[in-house]
């Protein structure tokens, strides 16, 4: 049961064991990771183009993404405000200076990569049977690089353990997302372990879409990509509104992106005191995405 999981998970473990001492090496890994993500997303678009009855599949993708988005998001937002009441967090009234256009530019590039692959595949009209094998090979290298990134993110075990708010946010996001995934799976009539895997993306749309696509095919991969991308875009708009009154809710809804993409918004609107909590919660959730997703995908046999 676990052979496929171990095969894919091994590069992540190996990468996590590799320390980098030179900043230029870290920069090289970050750059290469982003480029590989773009390549795999183009291949995801090609896979979608190779599907029969593409229009019907796109309808299914959007239906899956919307159902999971509602179930998981509702579960998160019902529980996270309780954490704000239990652990009040002081924020600072910084002015929101970041533009929505600027924050969405990177998301637009990734959407464009999938769209490019889809358009090329539809126009090319060639055999696309090689796409899955190519995606899996690049995925193994990508997981190796992600493992290196996590090891060299600057987070120590002591920093993680001492930040109780960050730990609690991550634990609550996981504890509410998984039941939300089960509810969505029941509603859609799909296997429950598929629902749990879909619920384990925590906002990391590029990796989540890639892993789901590799494990269950382009329909699930596309749905996971749209689901997590939607979470990030909603977080961008919600954080400035929620963070003064519900700072932990705002950080938690950002999921794994709280340590990178949405971190500037958190700092800009909530102040510097929110930053350690955001980084710790985002780091833990980022670490759990491949672990939980690969585990639940392995349950299919």
From TrEMBL:
Does this entry carry the keyword Transmembrane? yes
**Segments crossing the lipid bilayer:** 6-20, 32-49, 61-83, 104-124, 130-148, 169-190, 202-227, 248-266, 278-299
List UniProt keywords, sorted A-Z.
Membrane, Transmembrane, Transmembrane helix
Which InterPro entries does the entry link to?
LysO (IPR005642)
The record ties this protein, via Pfam families, to:
Lys_export (PF03956)
Note whether Membrane occurs among the keywords.
Answer: yes
- Which superkingdom heads the taxonomic lineage of this protein's source? Bacteria
Q: Which residues form the signal peptide?
A: none
Mind telling me what this protein is named? Lysine exporter LysO family protein
Species, as recorded: Salinivibrio costicola subsp. alcaliphilus
